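Quick review question:
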């Protein structure tokens, strides 16, 4: 992510193929991410309901609501406003599950919560975009098709890969392909907006404040509330991650596809601070572990 930011700022612009490759790359990344979804998870619907609803509530009611409120209060530029609506509308980051594991959280809870939010996104995303951006501003049919391509179809494709035992052969390369996919996406967004980063940095102050507040501040509030309610520590980890991390790559790709290059800036700025927040959580965990 840092390398993509640096190269985008130094070289500027973006090759035409990187813009055209945005949606196919996202589809590939989402397919690889959902390969880890075991089919047995869907065999017990009752056990899925509470974590799935928790994932939807944390990612959309808590984080999405916070982003929409901050957007209305701090952002005046129409393109940036549209970008933050997209950030609020997308499901959680694919990194929620691996970081739950690293932080010794409840991986089953985070996994089901993440999948619940992704499946809920098939309905929630188009509704949010029509409500906050207007049906005349976007094509609802196009949005629904993109959601099918980026959420439903990857889930189906991942089932096919698992069914025909192709997934184990791909698994060793999954991390590399995912990283390169996000690298190309972030490089494209930063390169297209190079002039804004270098000549109008003050225009990024408000997006940066929202990004900081939606991670560090909101994460602290969620953690404090969960501790007050005596939520188990392992579950708390999942709640914090689901309530602070959005799929910024998906939001940026949608912004480039549906709107303008400037509307992808909120996703890019938020992704930068997401990395900082994850580093903070890692250091916090390490300091807690080192305490006698």
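Suggested answer, residue by residue:
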């Amino acid at each position: 992510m840092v390398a993509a930011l640096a190269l985008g700022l130094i070289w500027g612009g973006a090759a035409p193929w990187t813009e055209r490759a945005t949606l196919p790359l996202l589809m590939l990344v989402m397919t690889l991410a959902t390969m880890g979804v075991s089919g047995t998870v869907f065999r017990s619907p009752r056990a899925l309901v509470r974590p799935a609803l928790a994932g939807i509530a944390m990612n959309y009611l808590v984080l999405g609501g916070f982003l929409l409120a901050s957007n209305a209060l701090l952002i005046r530029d129409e393109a940036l406003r549209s970008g933050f609506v997209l950030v609020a509308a997308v499901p959680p980051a694919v990194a929620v599950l691996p970081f739950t594991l690293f932080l010794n959280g409840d991986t089953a809870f985070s996994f089901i919560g993440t999948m619940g939010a992704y499946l809920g996104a098939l309905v929630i995303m188009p509704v949010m975009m029509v409500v906050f951006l207007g049906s005349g501003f976007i094509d609802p049919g196009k949005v629904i098709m993109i959601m099918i391509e980026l959420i439903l179809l990857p889930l189906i494709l991942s089932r096919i890969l698992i069914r025909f035992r192709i997934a184990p052969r791909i698994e060793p390369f999954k991390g590399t392909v995912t990283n390169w996919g996000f690298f190309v996406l972030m490089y494209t967004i930063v390169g297209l907006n190079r002039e804004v980063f270098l000549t109008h940095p003050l225009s990024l102050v408000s997006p940066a404040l929202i990004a900081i507040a939606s991670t560090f501040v909101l994460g602290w509030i969620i953690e404090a509330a969960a501790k007050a309610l005596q939520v188990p520590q392992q579950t708390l980890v999942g709640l914090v991650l689901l309530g602070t991390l959005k799929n910024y790559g998906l939001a940026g790709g949608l912004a480039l596809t549906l709107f303008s290059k400037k509307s992808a800036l909120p996703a890019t700025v938020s992704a930068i601070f997401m990395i900082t927040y994850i580093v903070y959580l890692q250091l916090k965990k390490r300091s807690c572990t080192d305490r006698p």
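Why it works: The two ends are 35 Å apart (CA to CA). Residues 45-74 form the longest helix (30 residues).
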